[in-house]
Structure formats: structure tokens, C-alpha cells
Amino acid sequence: MLRFLNTAAHGASTLVRIIGQLSAWLGLALVMVVSFNVLGRYLAGIGSVALQETEWHLMAAGALLGMSYGLNQGGEVRVDIFYEKMSVRVQAFVDVVSTLLLLVVALVIAWLSIDYVQNSYSINEGSPDPGGLGYRYLLKAVLPVAFILLGLQAFAMFAHALTNLIRPVSPPSS
Amino acid sequence: MTPVPFTEILALCMIGAFFLMLLGGIPVAICLGATGLIFGYFGFGPMLFSLLPSRIYGVVTNYTLLALPLFIFMGIMLEKSRIAEDLIEVIGLAMGGIRGGMALAIILVGVLMGAASGVVGATVVTMGLIALGPVINRGYDAGVACGVICASGTLGQIIPPSLVLILLADIMGESVGTLFAAALIPGLMLSLLFVGYILALGILKPHLVPAIPAQERALTSGKQLAVKLVKVVLPPIALIVLVLGSIIGGVAAPTEAASMGALGSLVLALLAGRLDLSILTAAVRGAFITSAMVFLILIFAQPFGLAFRGLGGERLVQDAFSLVPGGLNGQILFLMVVLFVLGFFLEWIEISYIALPLFLPIFQSAGVDMAWLAILVGLNLQTSFLTPPFGWALFFLKGVAPPSIRTIDIYRGVLPFIAIQLLGVVLVFFYPSLALWLPEAIGW
Amino acid sequence: QSTFNWKMTNAYGPGSPFYVEGPGSPTDFCAKVAAMSDGRLNIQHFAAGELIPALEGFDAVRSGAIEMNAANAYFWAGRIPAAQYFTTVPFGMNFAGMNAWLYHGGGMALWDELYAPLGLKALPMGNTGVQMTGWFREPITGVADLDGLKMRIPGLAGKVYAALGVDVTLLPGGEIFPALERGVIDAAEFVGPYQDRRLGLHNAAKYYYTTGWHEPSNTTELLIGSAAWDSLPADLKAIVETAAMACNVESYTWSEANNAAALKDLVDNEGVIADVLPDDVIAELKAVTDRVLEEGAAADPATRKVHDAFMAFKAEYKGWADISEKPLFSLPG
Ligand code: NA
Ligand code: NA
Questions:
Q1: Where's the TRAP C4-dicarboxylate transport system permease DctM subunit domain (chain B) (predicted)?
Q2: Alpha-carbon distance C68 to C16, whole Å?
């Protein structure tokens, strides 16, 4: 049972990692697009509404897709005043509770955002600015995708924590 | 006396549960998201939560947050390309026997970056990436190092341009320009108070902020030092000048200017011959993770903020206000206390929206100068970035600090700076011209 | 008799005069409704950011979580292109003409027709009156001055300016001042004298051009969820409609009074140079506007219908205004 859980967790974690490594380049794209817009306007007096909107589209996609990858790479921030003094087992218990809560919250938000995307899709939402980017529901669709990925990552962390709780020696997985 | 409504009791319980979970070691984002969803659900059922996607979408598409990923990219690029590695050390050498020299350098960089950016967290994360490791390696006390980085990093909130001031201008009916002008002197005054504190530490507790030992300094001749300074210090300074210069020179709006820093860091790494695919990949991934962790907290603060609102948390504040004894100064003092206390568990935007509209009508009808009040509020909100356990600056620094840095180091380190900031509030309170002289003088 | 406790969100931030606070504002609307209904319809008002971000009110009302939202219909142009026509149209109509069309020229019926399929209903609830062209760092003497000009101007007007060589930027409200002050942009459009002075724009640029060809008036939209609306008894519906109408007049007249005083202050005390755009610039802007509006109408049948109705009414109204109000304003002072 635990073995099956860990295999599934490993798969989830791998998927999150691959998607994260790919979407990390959104950050570089953001730097390039904003710089291009600034320098293009200043040096050549050129600019486009679509490229300006691309700025926050890139930020939004990156911020959302980065959540799961950040946790995958151990980026969570916690107050460790008491946590660091706990035994490995108690820490594992806190982690089991944390990851379970995260799993539930991520899935609830993913579920809530499906209607939000549906609303946008049903009226073919685009930019209110002429010349802006269309297909805004595609950007909004990143919401449920990102929170499902976050749920997968939470599941992977949950399996890891549960294993630690039951068998306090960490298995050599991700 | 009317009984406290059920929902307000729930709001209090939510805050309590949040603190328990936070202190229990559950990651910040999860504490915020879980307590928000659970207590919000009991308070007003599922309906209001259909607003949650709107709030999250609003955060990730918020144009003014663009500076965050851009500055983080700049900071990580400097770190990964090892350009930053020697920076603080060379400054320490250049400061000679002055104890606390590297901390003074951090304050200076904080002021400069603050003048270039207005976003919470951007400066703290960047400075944490660049400076924290090196100064601790040079024997600085971890608490002092964390404290000075957090405090200098939040200076950007009071030194214009500033998101906080832009929001306050909107809420308080002052022009953005007036508040920018009003904030400049208090912001610089605060920076000087920080400098004074570090200099005092250097005299009273020299072991916390050691200068680089004389023998080691002797190994580097004046000429060698000058060369090192040019090679190591110039590039990052050039970046800050690039960011600031693009604002002052009319090239970029304050938010966009961060892109000049990020692009510049790529160019610098390239010029230094340190930009290969593996370094670029590492920097891109590192920046992505760090930005995402900042956004993760911002995103998960949304259920909490929505629930606090939905549960009528603002009425708790209102009820408390009705109990305050008369007198304008008493009411201003109470506002300051409320802002400070809310800062323990809410982010500054929520605080501004919850507390200010309740109080403003009273102060407006009493003829209080709104620009002066806005600066008092701004200084107070800046303090809230530092107040444990829920201070944004603390989390952002924790997110980028080496594993050896414990939360308690950060808490310990910021306490003196919180005291200094409160001193700043007191000074502006008793000497309103600190805020009001400049806008008057330049006609803004 | 049942009591209704509703929520209203707003696209504008806390404290904004006209858009949130003051006579005829959305919070005033809530107060009026509460008073007229003797507390049977209580509407709790949330400024932008308090409950949801500025431009999320449309989806919130559609989802049923919120009953009402205050905004401008053209914010929804990405969702319903024809919504533009219910806020303002470049070279369109002033307050009198716009409301003549809405209330008596079939405008409201078209608005209902457009929104009903989405489960929404709208009422006009306010108007800024005529706006200003905007703030310019350098004088505009002819069309050539627009070429390469960097201007902050969102929406349809941005597309028109772009056709004349203007480099359109979309900076958020808070960055207009620092960007204009440093010359990142050469010009910026905001609202009118009272609101613009509040933003401090006169400290960043001195040339203040008129008239608001791009926004000859600007309607505040009260958006209501159809289900919520249908649940109201007839008397409360009448109260909502009447309060919205009252706010429409009160906010407009409030704007006129305050803009008059603010413009005098800006010119007399702040060294602002208020001037009219040159005729050739106006002629070019008009030509491009006609083209842009026609493109929009050709692309979307609903827009075509609203556009044609609006333009037909405008033509008739202009015939009347040309011999009534126009000469009136030309009478000796
Ligand atoms: Na700043
Ligand atoms: Na705090």
C-alpha cells in the first residue's frame, strides 16, 4: 500500500518538476518583453497594446504554475521556532497535516475556478482594449491547471510525510 | 450592550487558529489558505467563495507586482553569476576599520533600491539573496544581519515611489505627488536612524558587527582595493543606477524600471563571461522558485482576507473604535495601535482597506492634515512588514535565507528596527513639518 | 414584508469622490435606497479591493455571489463589445443627449437586450459630464505633434490616437503621475479638472487640452443580477430605479460644479494653460473614430445594432442641439 502510494507520489512529483522546469522560462520571457517595451518606446517610439498586456499575462502564468514547482523544490516558508525543536516523528505528523490541508485547499480552489473559466469561455472574453490580447479564458484556465498541479504536489508531499510518520527513515525518493 | 455577532466571534477564532497553526510549524501559505476556507465556509457558506478565483486572478495579474519577479530575477542572476559574491566583502574592506561597515552598505543599497522600487518584498528578497550570506560569513550576528536587511528592504515603502503611498493617496484623497514629497524626508530620516543604530552597535557591541580584521585588510593594498572596488562594486551599483536612472531620466515608469535591472544583470553576467546555458538555467529556475514562493503567500492570503471581510472582521475594529475615549490625539493614537496590531496577522492592503475608511471621516471632519496622517499611516504600515509573526519582510527573507538562519534569528534581529520605526512615527507625530515642509516648499 | 441584504462591489477604490463617495455616488445610492425603503433593502458597499479586485464585478454579479456592481460598462468591452456604447462613444453625445437616448430613445431597451442573456440588468447611475482631452507636457499645434507622442490612454480612444501615430501606453492610475512627471510619457488622459487635480497631474504637465472628444460624457453603470432583481417586489424595484436616476442627476451636477471650481483654481493658481485642440487635429480624430467604430460594428452583429441605433438618435439630437444649446452657449456672456 505504502509502496503503491510512493510510486504514485513519485510520478506526481516528476510531472510537477517537468512542467515547472519548462514554465520557469516564462520569467526570462517576462524580462525580455518588459525591457523590449521600455526600450522600444524610448528609443524608437514603438509600442503595442498586445505586447504591454503580454507582460502581466506572463507574470500571471508564471506565478500560478510556479506554486507547485516552488514547493517541489522545497521552497515553503514556515515559522520554525517550535518546529525545529520537534522530534522527527512529530515533524512528520505536522507535515502530514500540512500537506493534507494543502491538498484540500488546492482542490477546492481548482474546483471553484472551473466556473470562473467557464464564464469567460462562454462569452469568448478578450481584452477590453482594442489591440489587446484575445482568448482571455486561456489565461484564466491556468488557474484550475495550476491548482490541480499544486494538488498533485501536495499529494506527493503527503505520501512522503506519511511514509516518514509510519517508517521514520526517509526513503530515497525525490 | 449588544452581544457580539456569531460571525465576529468566528473571525476572532480564525485569527487564533491561524496563529496556532503558524506557530505549530505549518507553512505560512497553508495556514492562510486553510483557516480562510474553513472559517469562511462556516461563516457564510459556499457562495462568497465563488469570488475567490476573482481575487486570485486579481493578484497574479496585478500590474504593479511586475517589479517583484523582475527584481528577483536581477538578484538571482547576480548571485548565480557570482557577481554579488565579493560585493559586500569588498565594501567591508573599503570601510576599513569602521565597525558595521557592511551593514551601512546594506542600508545605503536599501535606500537606493527603495528609490527605484515601490513593491513590498522586492528589495528584501534581492538584498537577502545578495548580502545575507556574505555578511554572516564575515562574522556578523545573524539577527543583526537579518534585521538590517529586512528594515532597509522596507524603506522602499516610505521612500517614493511607493505602492503603499499610491494606495494611501487614493484612499485619503491626497494627490500621489503630495504624498511622495511628504514621505521623502521621513524616509531619509528613518534611514539615518538606522545608520545611527548600526554605528552605536559598532561601539557598544562590536562583536555583533565586526569590521574586517586589520591583518586581513593589510593584505590588500590601497591600489588593489581600488581595482577590486571597480571590478566588484561597480557592476551592481551600475545596475541600481540603471534602474534609478531610467526612472529619473524618463525612460521607464517605476514598475517597468525593474526590467532594466533584470536585463542589466544579464548583460553584466555576459560581459563578465559568466553567462553559459547552465548558469542561465540555474538563474531562471531559481528566480522562478523565489517569485513563486512570494506569490504563493500572496495568493493564499486571498481566502484569509476574503473570509475576514466576509465574517465582518472590520466591525471588530469599528466596535473597538467606538470605545475610545474622546480627543483627537487619542483617536490618532488608537488608529496607530490598530494598524500596528492588524499588522500582526493581515497584509498591508487589507489593513488599509479595513482600518482607514472607518477612521477617515472622523479625521477629515476634524480638519486633520491628510498628508501628515498618510505619512504616519505609511510609517506604521512599514512597521507592520516587520512585526512577527506575520511580517511580509520576514517571510520573504526567510524564503531566500540559507538554511542555517532560523526564524528566531530574524525575529530577534528586527525588534530594534521596529522600535526605531515607532520612534519615526513619534517624531513625525510631534513634528508634522517633517512631512509637510517639502510638499509646501515645492508647491505639490 | 421581507428584508433584503445585498452586496454592491465597485470598480473604484475606497474614498474616490464621485466614483465611491459623495453626492450621487454609489455609496450615496446605497444610503438613498436604505432610506427610501425604510431599511427593507440594505446594500453593503465594497470599494475595489475590499472584497474583489477592481474589474471583477461583472463576473461576481454574474455568478450570483454579489447582487450589484458599480462601474463603467466599457470595462466589459472584452466580454460584450457593444457595452462601450452604454458608457460613452468618441464624438458621441453629452449628458443630455446620452440620457435622452437611454431613457427615451430606446437605449435602455437595447442595454437590457444585450445583458439579459447573461443574467444581468443595468441602469445608468451617474455621469461625469464632459471630460478633458488630457494633460500634455508640450503644446499641440497640429496633427504632426501627435506623431510619436507617448500618451497614457486606454480603450477605444487609444486605438484612434494610435492611428495618428501616438504611442499608446496603458500604465495603471497610480503610475500616471510619476511617469508624466519624468517624461516617460508626454501626455495622459484621466477624467476632468476635479479628479485630475486630485492626482496632481498639473504638477507634471501644464497644457490641459479640451474638449473630451473621446468621452463627451461618461455613464456610471449599476449592474444588477437578474435573479436578484426578479426577487424584488415592485415597490423596491421602483425605489432602486428612482434612486439610480436621482444619482445620475446628482453626480452629474456635482461634477459640473466641482469641475468649474477646480478648473478656475488650476488656471488661476497653478499656472495651467487650458486650451482647445486645433481644428485639424479634431478633424483627423473624427475621421479615424468613424472608421474605428465602423470596424467594430462590422465585426459584431450586436454592436452593429447598438451602433446604428445610437448614431441615428445622435443625428436627430444634433439637429435639435445645433439650433438650441449651441447658439445658447454662443450668446453674450
Ligand atoms: Na520606493
Ligand atoms: Na506584520
A1: 16-433
A2: 18
pLDDT over 90 (residue B337):
no
Q: Which of A82, B268, A112, A103 is nearest to C59 (CA)?
A: A112
**What ipTM describes this predicted complex?**
0.94
Element spanning A173, H or E: none
Single-letter code of the amino acid located at C58:
F
First to last CA, chain B: 47
Q: Are B162 and B121 in contact (CB under 8 A)?
A: no
Neighbours of A107 (CB within 10 A): 16
Higher pLDDT, B241 or C116: C116
Ligand 1 centre and the CA of B160: distance in Å? 4
Q: Which of A154, A160, A158, A155 is nearest to A174 (CA)?
A: A160
Cell of C312: 441615428
Distance B388 CA to ligand 2 centre (A): 6
Per-window interface: C 271-310 vs A, CB < 8 A: 292, 296
Q: Tell me if B198 sits within 8 A of B147, measured CB to CB.
A: no
Residue A171 in this model has a pLDDT that exceeds 60: no
Beta carbons of B300 and B29 less than 8 angstroms apart: yes
What is the rounded average pLDDT of the residues B211-228? Answer: 75
Q: Report the distance separating Cα C60 and Cα B54, nearest Å.
A: 8
pLDDT band at C155 (very low <50, low <70, confident <90, very high): confident
Residue among C237, C212, C107 nearest C157 (CA): C212
Q: How confident is the model at residue B1 (pLDDT cuts 50, 70, 90)?
A: very low
Number of other residues whose CB lies within 10 A of the CB of residue B20: 12
C173-182 vs B234-248: helix crossing angle, rounded to 10: 100
Is C267 part of the contact surface with chain A (CB cutoff 8 Å)?
Answer: no
- Interface probe for B, chosen from C50, C206, C269 (most Cβ of B below 10 Å), is C50
The cell for C53 is 479586485
Q: Which pTM value belongs to this model?
A: 0.89
Q: What span, in angstroms and rounded, lies between the C-alpha atoms of C212 and C138?
A: 18
* Phi, psi angles (nearest 5°) of residue C17: -65, 150
The chain-wide mean pLDDT, for chain A, equals 91
**Separation CA B82–CA B272 (nearest Å):** 10
Residue B318, min C-alpha distance to chain C (Å): 15
| CA of B394 relative to ligand 2 center, distance in Å | 9
For C271-326, the pLDDT digits (tens) are: 999 999 999 999 999 999 999 999 999 999 999 999 999 999 999 999 999 999 89
Contact list in B for residue C177 (CB cut-off 8 A) is 175-177, 180
Q: Specify whether the backbone of C9 is left (phi greater than 0), alpha (psi in -120 to 50) or beta.
A: beta
For residues B176 and C178, the answer to whether their CB atoms sit within 8 Å is yes
Nearest C-alpha of chain C: how many angstroms from B432? 21
Q: What is the mean pLDDT of chain B?
A: 83
Residues in chain B with CB shorter than 8 Å from the CB of A109 are: 33, 52-53, 56, 303
